[in-house]
Structure formats: C-alpha cells, structure tokens
Prior knowledge:
By secondary structure, the protein is of the alpha+beta class. The protein is 52% helix and 19% strand. The chain contains 23 helices and 20 strands. Strands 2-3-8-5-7-6 form a 6-stranded mixed beta barrel. Strands 12-13-18-15-17-16 form a 6-stranded mixed barrel. Strand 12 and strand 13 form a beta hairpin. The chain is elongated.
Amino acid sequence: MRLRLRPRWHKVLSDLWSNRVRTLLVIASIAVGMFAVGMIATVHDGLIVNMSDSYAAVNPATILITTTNFGDDLVTRVKDVNGVEDAMGVRSFDLQIHVTNNRWNRINLKSFADMDKMAISKVTVIEGVWPPKDQEIVVERNKRAEIPVPLGGWVEVGLPNGEVHALKLVGVVHDQTIGVGVAGGGYFMSPAQGYISTNTLTRLGQPDQYNLLYATTTHSKDDGVYLRSISTKISDEIEAAGITVYNANVRGQHSHPNSSYTDAMTGILFMLGGLVVFLSGFLITNTLSALMNQQAQQIGVMKTVGARSGQVIGIYLTLISVFGLLALLVSVPLSHQGAYALLRYLADKINFDVRTEPVVPLAIVLQVLIALLVPQLAGALPVLHGARVKVQEAFTGSLTEDDPTRGGWIDRRIARLRGASRPLLLSLRNTFRRKVRLALTLTTLTLAGAIFIATFSVRASLENYVTQLGRYFVADVNVNLDRSYRIEDVRANLLQMPEVQDVEGWAYARCELLLENDQVGEPAQLLGPPGGTKLIDPMLLSGRWVQPGEQNAIALSERFIERYPNLKPGGKIRLRVNGQKTEWVVVGFFQLAGKSAGYLAYTNYEYLSRLVHQQGVSAIYRVISKQKNLAADAQRQLAARIETFLRARGYRVTETTAGKSLVENSADGLNTITTFLLIMALLTALVGSIGLMGTMSLNVMERTREIGVMRAIGASDGAVMTQVLVEGGLIGLISWVLGVLVSVPISKVMSDGVATAIFGATSPFAFTVVGPLYWLGTVLALSVLASLLPARNAARITIREALAYE
C-alpha cells in the first residue's frame, strides 16, 4: 500500500533532498555544536571517573611516612594498629643514571620485599618482565625516553662515591603514584623512576632496610581527617620503636596526584563548549535566513492557495526539527569516539589509565536538548519573519531586511575606489552584499580566531609564570651531597675552579604542620639560605622577606594561605621540625607554584642550622658561575664538571642539577594543557570554516543568474572561481583583524583561569604575536578550503542553468 503524504510533508522532504549541499551544511552547523558539547561532557566525566578509578585500582598508599631505617618487624607492628588494613616497607633513594656521553640524570630507585606479590601502589607491566631480579632494573614509562638503552641492555648507575654499577634493563612499567611525593613537586617535576630487588640494594651501597612506609586503612580511605588520625597512630607506633619519623603524608584513595591539571582543563572545557554552541546557533540562523529568503516565492504561492502563517511556520519548524534529528544521529557517535581519543591522549600525558569507555548519559541528554532547542531558537526569528510576509512582498523574492539592492555607506565607498580592477571591485561588492549574513559569519570566525590566538597567549603567560619561579633558583648549579660537610671547606674547594664565582651553603629541614591538639598535618619543606643571599628574588604577596639575624622568623608560600586563611604577617605558626615542636613568627607570604610545589617556607640559615644542630655545615650548595646568563645546556655542562671536581676531592655527590631545570621540567605539564586547549581551539575554527562555507555557498546560489550573465559575456571558469575565492579570503582577513582585537581580553580571562587552577594565583599576562601569525595562516587556509566547493559549483553553472534558475 502506497503511503500518502500531505503536500506540506512532501515539501519538507523535497527541501531536504532537492538541495543536498544546503542540507549537509545545516546538519553540519547543528552537529558541530552538539559534537562539542557531547565530547566535552564525555571528556569531563571520563577524566573524573577514569582518573579516580584507575588510581584507586592500584590500591595506592593513603598514608606515606618517611623515617630512619627500619625492618620487617616494624611493618608487622604497623599492620596491627587499629584502623590499618595493610602496610608495606619500601627502600627509596636517589642515584644518578647515565643518559648521554657526559650527562647523568637523577633517578629515584625503590625496592621492597615480595615484589611479585605487590599489594599497595601496584604497577602495571608495559613491556618486559616483573619483578626484577638481582642486578636488574625496571623503569617507569614516564622518563623512558631519557634512558637510551633497549630492553636487555645495561644501564649505568652512579653512586655518590663515584662508583658506577651496571644494571640490566628488563622491563617498563606504569606507576600512577608518581608525584605523590612527601613534600610536593608533582608528576612533571619527578625524576626517572626505577625498581630493583632487595638483593641489588647492597650492590648499590644501600642497607637492606626500609626508609618509607606505605599504609592503607580499613575504611574512610578518602577522608583526610580520618587518614591523618590513623597516620598519627602509626607515627606514634614508629617512634615508640625508636625510629625517627621525618614526615607523614596522606592522600585519598581516589585523589590522583595530577588532578590539579584536570581541574584547569575542565573549567576551560565548559567555557569553550558553550561558545561553540553559541557559534553554532549563528550558523543555523545564517543558513535559515538564506533559506527563507530563497523560498520567498514558494511562501507566496502557499499563502495564495490559503496557507495560514501558522501552517507555514509549522512546515519550517518541522524541517528544522528534522535537521536537528539528523545532526543528532551524526554527533552522538562522533562525539563519543572523539572524546575517548582525547582521553587516551591525556591519559598518556598526565599518567592515568582509560579503564572504561562507557556512553555518558549526560552527554546524550545535552545533545538531545541542543538538537530540540537550539535549532528552533536560532531559526525562530527568520521563520517568523518569513511566515508573516504578505503575498505581494513574497513575490518580490526578498523577505529579509538585509536587502542587497539598497546601497549603504560601505557600498558607496567601494564604488568610489579608483585603480582597482573590475573583478576585485565585484568581489568587494559581493563580500558586503548581505551584511547581516556577513556579520554573523564574521562573528563566528572572529570568536574562533580569538580562542585560537588566546591559546598561544595562555602558554606564553604560563611560561612567564614558570620563568618567575626561577627567581627562587637564581644559582647556576645546585649541588646535593650525601651528608653535611663544612661549608668553608666546600666553598674553598669550589672557588679553585676558574668558572666559579661564589658558593652558598643552605640549611634544609623536613617538617610537618602541627594542627589542633598537636596532630601532625601535611609535610612541608623548610629552607635556610644565608642571611642577605642574592640567590632569591621572592614575589611577595604580603608582609616582607626574612631579614638577616632574625630568630624564628619565617616566610611562607601561598599554599599556607589556603590551609590557614586567617593567618596574617605577624601571626604565629607551629611546625614539627625533625620531630621537634617549634613555633615561628610569620613575616610574609610569597607566591610560588601553588598546589604544584607543596608547602615551602624560608628562614635564616643561622637560625635553622642551630635548630637542627648543623651549624657551619650543609649538604645543599648553590653555585654561581662567573659567566652570566648561562643557558640550560651550559649550566648542565658546568654541573658535570663540578661533580667530577668534587668527587676527585673525596666528596660523595648525590646530585648536581642546572638552575634552569625547573623551567624545562615544568614545560611538559604546560605542553599538555596548551595542546589540549589548541585541540579545542581548532574545534571552534571548524565551526568558523563551516559558517564560511555556508555563507559562500548561499552567496553563489543567490547569484546564479549573475554568474550566468558573467559566463555569457565571456568569463572563464578560472575567473568565476577566483572571484569566489577572493570573497572568502576577504572575509577571512577581516575576521583575522577582529579576532586579534577580541583575543586580548579572552586571553587574559583564560590565562588567569588556567593559572589559578594550577598554581592558585593568576599568571603575569603575556600576549604573543605567534598566535596571530599562526591564525593568519590558518584562517586564510580555511577560507580557501571553505570557498573551494562553492567556487567549483559556481564555475560549473552553465548559462542555460542560470537563466532557468528560480
């Protein structure tokens, strides 16, 4: 039985099928907004779920306590503490690994008993074997590229006394707990990670004992207050056994170390998602305005045979709904696939596993709502305007107020141009022919360009922030020795090197915050440079810096403000330093790296060295070169010479690093964020290019007769195509100028948002010319590509088709 459709539904189907290019453009205009929102909702949900679940799946230690050496008997005692589910002893220490001919990098090595039965902070084998045997090593994948040795090869590990041992590389693993460090520093600042058997410890000069305790609790594994209470019980048990507790740290079972980076991303995600939907609405309005204008005479015919305005509105709203449903069928699967492709990229960069790829209901609901509401809202004005037109007006063929026959100020200026060729004048005139349509297209491209440019400014601003952090690391080389040596002896030796200008010995102490009722809180680092040092140029937020000769005066990083919001300069703070309860007067707060740097405080060397009974000695040295402004490579070369020099004189060196290594290590995290932002910026650029393609296609369709006249008087295919391509290029150039102007405030907002999420403070704003230059090339390429299909269609119009065109 043949299905009979009423004439109005025949018209809907005819409009869908008769102009398939227009149909595809409308569907693309709607789908791109839904795709962006669906992908963003899926990525947001995927980040939260996969980061927390994959981290929890390795059963991470929720309590980490650093101590002096202990054995298995203490682990057994800790397991019996009420509230402790499991405990494990770990030997953790730093050595150096040979990476190039003259370069050694720091590597953190871990060893523990029963590695094949690892139950806490488990690792996942990527390749090779686990666990390592005697004289074997397994490395973590994060810094695998820095170790140019294939599986089965031998890596050289350097000891503080200068001895070098070869270990066979047998495997690569994935460890999601990197960056959980007891005093902050984060994933990107962590050194290479290696894992060795207990049998290998003695070969590397290490005792077969533990110095780090991992523990998990029986319940409330994400409750920070409860975890600290159990941590205090464990610390008391350890100290009762005569073992010194250096510091204790707690972290929730689902609290991934890199969550601060995803916090920075998700805020920007939703902002960009809303923007893409907004721009998508512009595309829909633009396209439907042209559709109503093109079908003016059809509307006149429908009204002539008795159609009411409400019926006309119903036809076009139904058509819009069909467009939305077709776009929904396209966007849902594509957004799902796109989201998980992006998640897999992020998983590799910020150290988590994509365990599942479920369909996110919220993403589908949001896309359905957009499909039902946004096209109807965006198309309401042109549909209402077209449906209310009188029959006489409809047969004039123009429904919109954007009448190309009425010359405006711009048209008069174009007409007065002298010296321009006729084809160029025609392209200029046609560019500004439909001003409302042009305005909508320019708005779309301008905002897309502004986001694209802002991405590069965000990176420049974050790099400025990291560069400012170098003000706390002014020295050219940082030297760590295996124990404290007399400062005057070390200084006198190093000054014998012709390239060394000065040397400072600093005091250092691990400490913990003391909370109410003397409960031990988060770990902190306390540094004591000599009074009047020139190697720190702090960024003060309030108060002042520590003055030479001051007693128990302390300057705190901004992380303390988050923990103690009521603490002001002049107030007091209590810390446990090397197990001793102490009270300090806060003289000021300085800006460092927020969450990424943990709790850091500065005082005087003179006072801190007396407090920890290390007067006149130090294990930490800052070296200044006679040559100013050394590049990072030059600093590394100097560090290698200093290390060789000190070892030749009997000093046991654990590490030498370039002063600018902080900036280099931080770049990895910044690259991840800015690459992510660039992907989203390209999505907005895609919206702009679809809008431009739609505009050029509509312009070509409306000028079919005009093009036919051009062909009749001898215009070649190339001339017709060139005219259309020039129009697209002109629109791209105008949008580029506007985009550069709009990008300045957008860059500032995005930079502050990302910096606050990562560092807890706004970054010094920087606007770079790199973004505008890249966008200029991108927008011109997009303009050409978006104009190619319309230009090709224009060139294929025959004189016969043009004269028959309605």
